[in-house]
Design a protein that fits this description.
Layout: H1 3-12, E1 18-24, E2 34-43, E3 47-56, E4 62-68, E5 75-81, E6 90-93, E7 98-101, E8 105-107, E9 116-119, H2 120-137, H3 141-159, E10 164-170, E11 176-178, E12 183-186
Antiparallel strand pairs: 1-2, 2-3, 3-4, 5-10, 5-12, 6-9, 6-11, 7-8, 7-10
Length: about 190
């Protein structure tokens, strides 16, 4: 599909509607089990987003991304989670964006990076799953202890008893923290 056809296709998808195309050739397992999905979503204070995903029922290959309808400049968002109310703040991450939680970890862009729309609570749960995997596979007792302490910290944030800083950076401007409390700056 050419760039012009892609733009025309995007404009045909009504907001909130998802279109799917099943039976496509999977780039990983070469079977026709791939489903392509695209849709449009309006996010308050951010604008219109295009959502894209690929999923293969054969090999379970999955790739997803988000892209702003209007070009944006590179940006950095900083947000401090101060209590339970902040857990509902929306996070948008394109595959080009990075999310950093100081002293905890990061989600970096790359070939296997996925775009997603979530909230702070969902983001913390993603980090918890990564840390649980590290804890469960660590051979060194010190590494296991560090992972357990990070999990306690994140659980305390979810309970509203500890603060946490989240930083989102994206050179394409397709990522954001959607809150009046988030500080936005240029990259």
């Amino acid at each position: 599909m050419t760039g012009k056809e892609t733009v025309e296709k995007k404009q045909k998808v009504d907001e909130g509607q998802m279109e799917s195309l099943a039976g496509q050739l999977c780039p990983m397992c070469n079977t026709k089990n791939l489903t392509l999905t695209e849709g449009v979503m309006e996010v308050p204070f951010f604008g219109k987003l295009f959502l894209f995903s690929m999923h293969c029922t054969g090999c379970h290959y999955h790739k997803a991304d988000v892209e702003a309808a209007e070009p944006k400049e590179g940006c950095k968002y900083t947000f401090e989670v101060n209590g339970k109310d902040d857990l509902n703040v929306r996070i948008i991450r394109s595959s080009e964006g990075s999310i950093k939680i100081p002293h905890v970890g990061s989600l970096e862009p790359g070939v296997n990076a996925e775009g997603f729309i979530s909230n702070v609570e969902g983001l913390i749960e993603r980090f918890k799953k990564q840390i649980e995997t590290l804890r469960d596979t660590a051979e060194d007792e010190e590494d296991k202890k560090k992972a357990k302490n990070l999990l306690k910290k994140l659980q305390n944030v979810l309970w509203g008893s500890e603060k946490l800083k989240i930083i989102v950076e994206d050179p394409t401007g397709n990522s954001a923290i959607v809150s009046d409390k988030a500080q936005r700056s240029k990259l």
